[in-house]
């Protein structure tokens, strides 16, 4: 059941980050990848700041923030 939650949070986080940064999503698989990688980045950043997330909403926020950071870094490198 845990992997399904990871995939759902990843899909929603990737979609939200895509809408925030670019104006659209990346398709289901792309959103999941962006969201999961974003969750790793967000967890690292929030961990450095001393924050911990234990709720599903906190995990979603962490994943979205990390995904936005990821998409920003990708856009900078792409230019």
UniProtKB/TrEMBL annotation:
InterPro entries per record: Transgly_assoc
Keyword presence, Cell membrane: yes
Keyword Cell membrane appears in the UniProt entry: yes
Bilayer topology annotation: Multi-pass membrane protein
Assigned keywords, A-Z: Cell membrane, Membrane, Transmembrane, Transmembrane helix
Family of the protein in this entry: Belongs to the UPF0410 family.
The protein, known as: GlsB/YeaQ/YmgE family stress response membrane protein
Lineage, top ranks: Bacteria, Pseudomonadati, Pseudomonadota, Gammaproteobacteria, Alteromonadales
């Amino acid at each position: 059941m845990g992997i399904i939650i990871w995939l759902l949070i990843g899909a929603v986080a990737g979609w939200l980050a895509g809408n925030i940064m670019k104006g659209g999503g990346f398709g289901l698989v792309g959103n999941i990848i962006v969201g999961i990688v974003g969750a790793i980045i967000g967890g690292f950043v929030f961990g450095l700041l001393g924050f911990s997330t234990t709720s599903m909403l906190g995990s979603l926020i962490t994943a979205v923030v990390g995904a936005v950071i990821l998409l920003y870094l990708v856009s900078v490198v792409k230019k």
